Each structure stands twice: as C-alpha cells, then as structure tokens.
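Appendix C reproduces, verbatim, an entry submitted by the partner laboratory led by Prof. M.T., so that reviewers can inspect both the input and the predicted structure.
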Amino acid sequence: MLPSAPPVLELQAFLEDYKSFVNSLESKRIAADTLSYTRLLSGWQMLQHLAAKHQRTQAPDYNIFWLLKNLYRDETRLHSPFLADLLNPNGTHQQGILFYEALLELLRGRSLPVEQYQVRDPYFVQVATEVATGNLTGDGDGYIDILLTYQAPERSFAIAIENKIYAGDQHKQLERYQAYLQLHFTNQHLLLYLTPQPDCVPAEHSIKAVRRAELEAVGQLGCISYKNEINSVLTRALPHVEAPTVRAIIMQYQQVITAL
C-alpha cells in the first residue's frame, strides 16, 4: 500500500487543480463574451450600413425648404407663391384642379357654400399674389396675398386668402379686402384668413367682430390654419398626385408647415 501524500502536498495539488479549473472557466467565459461582442459588433455594423444606405437612397433629412434658411417663415416669398401655384388648376405642378378641389372639399365639410366656387373650365381661372386693392375705404391701400378669380361668360367669383404667419393685422385690413371683393364680385366671393395655428381670429382693428360674424354667417369669411386645413388639403390630394417630384415636394412642405 502506497503511503499517502502529506497534507500540505495534497492542499497544493488541490489549489493547482482549482486554479486550472478557474482559469479554464475564465477562458471559456472570455471566449463566450468575445463571441457575443463580435456578434454584437457585427450586428451594429450591419445596422450602421443599413442606416447609411437608407440615408443615401432616401435622404429623409433633405428638405429644400429647410435649406432656404429662414425663407420657410416668409409668407410673401415662399408660402403665398407656393400655395397660389398649388391652387391654380393651370399651375406648374401639372396636376390640374386636384389641389383646388381638395380645398373645396375641406371647406364643404365646414358648411361653407362652396358649390358656387366650382370651376367648370380652368381656362377662366387666374391666380395672383400681392393684388393691389386700392384705397376703397379711405383707410389706405392694401394687397391681397392670394387672389383666385374665375371669370367665365356665364358667371364669376373670387377666393382671396389673407396669409398671416408672423405679421400682425393692419388697420381695417380685412374690411378693405372685403370692400374690394364686394365691388368686383358682388356676393360671389370668399375671404379666407390663414394663420399657422388653429383658432386664430382677425384682430378687432382689422374687422369688427360684428361684421366678421355677419360675413361668416353668409359664407363670405372663414378662418383656416396651416396646421389643420392646409395640411389636410395636402394630405387629401397627395395619394392622387401622379408626378413623383410634386409628391416629394408636397411631403417636404408638410414638414415645414407643421413647424410654423
């Protein structure tokens, strides 16, 4: 029978075995962690690649309106000309009466008498910006931001838009515009007061509240906003836009007006 090892040697042997066992476990853990980190890094690199490809092929942050710096807040140089062209059945967008009909459909939902503003022949439509009204009321000249007119042999009408983004109301401004519309189009006209956010109304010094209520009652004055009505018009029309370029610009413009 072999003599047993001294206790000290047995303890040393046990510690060596334990050390080897711990080192083996540590090596396996490091190997497992390295594999996990490698897979994680590979997945992260794949996500970065996909994100870069999405940016390259879709360019979601590229917006011509943002690139024009503060122009996206300018009602005279950007918003009025852009909206005037969209609402023009003969506009450069080449989508015909699409956007104008979308506006009428939205106004119809607000119980405005839009049937009298139907366009039968786009040939008789004219859309202009900064239309001079003259000094009809003795309170100074005025300029209507957007004026759409239809002057056919059998009938005529006008839709005017007062575009208020970061400018305040002028003295008797809407009263002057109403006088111009009444002079040239009798009762066949609609004046829209357009502001960035909903629930904005003209100032008392622009048009008296009593007069405003009278015009609203007969469907000759309405308040609309970029955030609600204009955005809704574009959303209604967008699925029917056939030109990819126009569709892309409309979606970019919707990003802009939600930030006004």
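The two ends are 97 Å apart (CA to CA). Additional entries are available on request from the coordinating office.
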